[in-house]
């Protein structure tokens, strides 16, 4: 766990010591470690995180907690031949330590052992291969922790694999190019990569200058040919980068004489740059041609960008027969609850008149503007429940995002249940959340949306609305929760359904695809704190990533290719489809975006875990479904690594509209569905569901013990739906966790009380906070029982928490659905029992 309070004391003590000025480790080449992802066993405080040791800045540092057996490791992004490690120690140095190498970050080999170190700068020659390099502290030299200004790893990555060769073709020819400057319009950067020795690039007459080329994807690099004009470089570097920002030196040349020359290199990158540092003449730098040769290893690199595949339907207002396109997909998907069809409609900016887009299962509709009002629908986006006789409790797995609706009759109908997000929508009228005829509905979720008129939930049992604006809100059934919603009704939970918080403590909107001119980009919104109202049209902060930085995953893609793309530094855009994988998808790089369209579905085969996310900053998981396979997986989705405790508060990993299903589409099994190991994770709308209907459903047939387990500290869940697990639906053991809105049903198919009795208690709590936890806060939680296999079951309680001053629970309720089982208490031994068949909540407003 993170030692924040201890860190404050250590900082105060360290301030009494006069520290030597930091000294940068000198080296001709840029370290392989610079700018890469770093993690550590601990950090002294938020100002000394792991990343400071690999940022290239000798004035920032990492420091650990004040104990032995601490470590700092860096992920080089690919296997490297490591030749040298330089450690620039602060005053708190390691007396005894090891340098270790690993291919997977878990099994380590000692490359160098240091005893009796005296601090300062340690330059260590090593020999070995690994993707991960670690300083493993054994004994400290001071009472403080371990502290490094810089941790630098040198060597080579990539290159041509054994048995491969260096391609004679020029991989740079005709590729996009740029430069630090040009002499004039007649000497552009592209002229150095056009294959024409009669055209040239030339720069302004100043040092330094550079010219670079984008190869389109990360490639193994083996040779670079240069053909200098009379204005040549005396000193220069040939560099490579996977992202165009962090550069690795492939070759450093001094005292060059111009003309034609070839340089063998070893490394990999998408971008190659010739970086001149000293001119040989009074003019600038000038190159007739630059040729880049790549290794042929039999495994071509994964290309970024490209088309969006067969199941994405891109339209504009002039698209012929547009209503027919919507109707055709709806006819296929209206009742196709467990089928394999997946569809995404993308609407280019403009005005669409007279459209009624009815959305069935696994169908998503999104505008392609940067703001919702860029895409105007004069018509409707409709979800109703005619397929299920007017009952909307199974209207799952569909979405609408990033557009404006002017409803044809003044009110749009969005009658959904779980896993049906409504995001970044401007409704220029009212919104009806109930089906025609006001049958049952069991939703739902709205975020970052503006509804000018009144929202009418009517028969909706529960609903969570975040960071939005409503013209009004009428009635409700059990649990209507609002955070950061302008126009929300006031709280009345003691006598009614409403829980209202003025702001949302932390939020970050979901990434979304949009068009910048004719180029697809993914917008990655910034974090907001104490948010209220919509984030647009300002869209303050955040970044935009071109589609070329994404592997566009299409049906038929393999896990090996997906992981290769991630290793190259690409993000993932899953197009609509069902993806069977035979190895775990490993998301190891900070700030990686994994975005799904049309409820893209990942199914792990052979009992592998579906996805692991490393303990790194800022990963964005959004918009996809993980469906358990028939062979038991240990964990379907794991965020962070066990024991990880890095501080991610400035840039948390987010999980948004990521849904988990165990059974229903066929037998599925998993011990844990989602496990959160990282600190500061933001879970913003998820439905984690062990199926109660469909195929492959039974107490042991689709067994899944736990829905969500949270081991990380400072995790926030906003909009948490978890249902029907064999044991605990939510088990929270991290400190300072927070949940705003929780919806739960206990497993319908528990065969009898004996099957769910543990520790002398009948029934596993829907939401359990571990006895070891000192601080936890949750508000607006509901658990419902519907024990159809044995209606005589009396569950002891819905919620179980330690009774401590720092554990605070508010607005809790339990409900017996029609008398199919009962609850004896609400939380622990507090709260009245449910009784009879009246389906009336039993509530506790505050506990303890």
UniProtKB/TrEMBL annotation:
Transmembrane segments: none
Biased composition (Low complexity): 29-50
Domain spans labelled F5/8 type C: 17-156, 159-295
Positions of region (Disordered): 29-60, 165-185
Record flagged with keyword Signal: yes
Residues spanning the signal sequence: 1-27
UniProt KW keywords: Signal
Protein name: Discoidin domain-containing protein
Organism taxonomic ancestry: Bacteria, Bacillati, Actinomycetota, Actinomycetes, Kitasatosporales
């Amino acid at each position: 766990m993170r030692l924040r309070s201890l860190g404050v004391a250590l900082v105060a003590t360290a301030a009494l010591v006069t520290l030597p000025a930091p000294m940068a480790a000198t080296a001709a080449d840029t370290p392989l470690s610079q700018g890469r992802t770093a993690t550590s066993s601990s950090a002294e405080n938020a100002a000394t995180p792991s990343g400071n040791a690999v940022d290239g800045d000798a004035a920032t540092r990492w420091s650990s907690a004040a104990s032995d057996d601490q470590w700092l490791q860096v992920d080089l992004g690919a296997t490297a031949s490591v030749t040298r490690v330089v450690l620039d120690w602060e005053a708190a140095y390691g007396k005894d330590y090891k340098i270790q190498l690993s291919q997977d970050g878990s099994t380590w080999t000692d490359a160098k052992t240091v005893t009796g170190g005296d601090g300062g700068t340690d330059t260590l020659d090593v020999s070995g291969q690994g993707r991960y390099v670690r300083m493993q502290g054994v004994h400290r030299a001071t009472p403080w922790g371990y502290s490094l200004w810089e941790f630098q790893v040198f060597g080579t990555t990539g290159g041509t694999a054994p048995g491969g060769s260096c391609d004679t073709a020029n991989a740079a020819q005709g590729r996009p190019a740029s430069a630090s400057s040009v002499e004039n319009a007649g000497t552009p950067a592209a002229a150095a990569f056009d294959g024409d020795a009669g055209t040239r690039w030339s720069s302004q007459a100043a040092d330094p200058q550079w010219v670079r080329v984008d190869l389109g994807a990360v490639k193994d690099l083996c040779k670079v040919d240069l053909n200098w004009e009379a204005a040549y470089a005396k000193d220069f570097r040939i560099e490579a980068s996977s992202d165009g920002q962090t550069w690795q030196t492939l070759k450093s040349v001094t005292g060059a004489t111009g003309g034609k020359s070839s340089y063998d290199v070893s490394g990999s990158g998408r971008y190659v740059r010739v970086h001149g540092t000293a001119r040989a003449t009074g003019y600038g730098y000038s190159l007739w041609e630059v040729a880049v040769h790549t290794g042929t290893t039999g495994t071509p690199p994964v290309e970024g960008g490209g088309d969006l595949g067969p199941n994405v339907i891109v339209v504009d207002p002039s698209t012929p027969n547009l209503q027919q396109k919507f109707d055709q997909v709806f006819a296929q998907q209206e009742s196709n609850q467990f089928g394999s069809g997946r569809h995404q409609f993308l609407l280019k900016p403009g005005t669409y008149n007279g459209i009624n887009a009815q959305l069935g299962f696994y169908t998503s509709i999104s505008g392609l503007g940067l703001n919702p009002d860029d895409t105007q629908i004069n018509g409707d986006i409709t979800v109703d429940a005619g397929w299920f006789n007017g009952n909307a409790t199974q209207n799952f797995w569909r979405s609408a995002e990033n557009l404006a609706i002017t409803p044809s009759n003044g009110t749009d109908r969005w009658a959904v249940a779980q896993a049906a997000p409504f995001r970044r929508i401007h409704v220029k009228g009212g919104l009806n959340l109930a089906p025609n005829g006001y049958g049952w509905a069991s939703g739902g979720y709205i975020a970052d949306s503006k509804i000018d008129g009144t929202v009418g939930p009517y028969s909706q049992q529960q609903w969570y609305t975040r960071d939005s604006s409503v013209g009004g809100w009428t009635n409700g059934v059990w649990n209507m929760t609002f955070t950061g919603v302008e126009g929300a009704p006031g709280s009345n939970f003691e006598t009614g359904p409403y829980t209202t918080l003025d702001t949302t403590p932390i939020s970050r909107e979901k990434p979304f695809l949009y068009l910048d001119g004719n180029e697809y980009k993914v917008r990655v919104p910034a974090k907001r704190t104490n948010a209220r109202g919509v984030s647009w049209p300002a869209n303050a902060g955040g970044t935009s990533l071109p589609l070329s930085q994404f592997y566009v995953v299409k049906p038929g893609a393999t896990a090996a290719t997906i992981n290769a793309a991630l290793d190259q530094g690409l993000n993932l855009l899953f197009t609509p489809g069902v993806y069977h994988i035979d190895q775990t998808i490993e998301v190891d790089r900070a700030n990686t975006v994994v975005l799904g369209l049309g409820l893209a579905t990942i199914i792990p085969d052979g009992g592998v875990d579906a996805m692991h996310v490393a303990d790194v900053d800022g990963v964005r998981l959004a918009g996809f479904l993980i469906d358990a396979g028939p062979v038991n997986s240990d964990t379907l989705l794991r965020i962070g690594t066990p024991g990880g405790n890095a501080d991610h508060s400035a840039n948390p990993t987010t999980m948004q509209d990521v849904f988990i299903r165990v059974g229903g589409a066929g037998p599925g099994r998993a011990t844990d569905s989602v496990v959160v190991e990282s600190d500061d994770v933001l879970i913003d709308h998820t439905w984690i569901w062990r199926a109660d209907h469909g195929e492959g459903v039974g107490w042991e047939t689709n067994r899944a013990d736990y829905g969500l387990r949270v081991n990380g500290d400072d995790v926030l869940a906003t909009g948490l739906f978890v249902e029907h697990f064999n044991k605990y639906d939510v088990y929270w053991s991290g400190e300072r966790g927070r949940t705003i809105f929780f919806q739960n049903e206990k497993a319908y198919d528990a065969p009898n009380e004996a099957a769910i009795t543990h520790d002398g208690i009948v029934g596993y709590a829907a939401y359990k906070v571990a006895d070891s936890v000192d601080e936890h806060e949750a508000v607006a939680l509901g658990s419902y029982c519907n024990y159809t296999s044995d209606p005589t079951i009396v569950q002891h309680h819905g919620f179980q928490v330690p009774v401590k001053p720092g554990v605070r629970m508010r607005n809790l309720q339990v409900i017996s659905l029609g008398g199919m089982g009962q609850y004896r208490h609400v939380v622990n031994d507090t709260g009245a029992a449910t009784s009879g068949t009246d389906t009336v909540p039993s509530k506790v407003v505050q506990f303890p």
